[in-house]
Structure formats: structure tokens, C-alpha cells
Amino acid sequence: MKLSNREILEAKAAIDGLLQMKLPVKTSWGLAKMGGKLYAIAVCIDAVKQGLFTTYQIYVEKGEKDNVTVVKSRADAADDSVTKFMGELNTLLALEVEVDLDGKVALPLEVDDKPLEIEGSLLMPLEKLITVE
């Protein structure tokens, strides 16, 4: 299955969230295996991203009041370093990778005779990777 690096990072974070929930063992196992495969790729993405931070002398700062993330360049960096960094980062995240997955993971409709409730923010990144049965 082809996934962009952005989809891989978002799916990995969503799978981590689902793995915190009480799910049937087959579902948890399938998610854990899928997460492991995505994690291996995510490590490579992160290594390249860290190289971009170094190359363009970029750092990330969170605002104290509004908690907004701001990308800044060091004082001795080139004037257009943030623009170049963001362009390279977007290119990295848009690259597609063929991921060898064992098919989609089936999420149950119910767990312990109660409807399974999952936030949409966890489901959206997994649209290509899960089914609901």
C-alpha cells in the first residue's frame, strides 16, 4: 500500500492512541504489528527531518500564552532558511512509500457489549488502514 510520509506519521500517532484503549486481542495485535511497521519508517522520516533542522539552522519554539508552535532560524542562518526548510519538509512529507501491511485491521463495533467509542481525530488518519465490523 502506498502512503505518504505525512500519512505514515499521522497514522502512527493514531495507532498509538488506539493501543491505549481496551480492544479485543486480535485487534490490538493487528494494530501493534501495523504500528511497528509504520514506526520503522517514521524513524527514517525523523532522521531526515532532524538533518533538515541542522542544515537550515532551524529550531521550534512554543508560545507561552497561546501554545502556538513557531519555526525560527538561528541568528547566523541565511535569511530564507525558514522558507527553504518548510519547502524541504513539505517535500519530505509528501513523498510516497510502499508499505508492506497485512491488510486492514478490523475494529469491532462493540467491546464488552458496549459501543466502541473512538474520537474522529484518531479515525481520520487511519481511513486507509482500518475497517469497522
How would you portray this structure in words?
Helix content is about 45%, strand content about 20%. The two termini are about 20 Å apart. The chain has one domain. It has about 130 residues and is of the alpha+beta class. The protein is built from 4 helices and 8 strands, in the order βααββαββββαβ. It is elongated and about 60 Å long. A two-stranded antiparallel ribbon has the order 1-4. A hairpin with a 2-residue loop joins strand 6 (about 110) and strand 7.
Distance between the termini: 21 Å
Quaternary organisation of the protein chains: single chain
Low-confidence stretches: none
Count of distinct structural domains: 1
| Sheet of most strands | 2 strands, antiparallel
User: What string gives the helices and strands in order?
Assistant: EHHEEHEEEEHE
Mass-distribution shape: elongated
Q: What are the key terms here?
A:
single chain, 133 residues, alpha+beta, two-stranded antiparallel sheet, 8 strands
Write the layout of secondary structure elements.
Blueprint: E1 2-4, H1 5-18, H2 25-55, E2 58-62, E3 69-73, H3 81-94, E4 96-98, E5 105-107, E6 110-111, E7 114-115, H4 120-123, E8 130-132
Parallel strand pairs: 5-8
Antiparallel strand pairs: 1-4, 2-3, 6-7
Helix pairs in contact: 1-2, 2-3
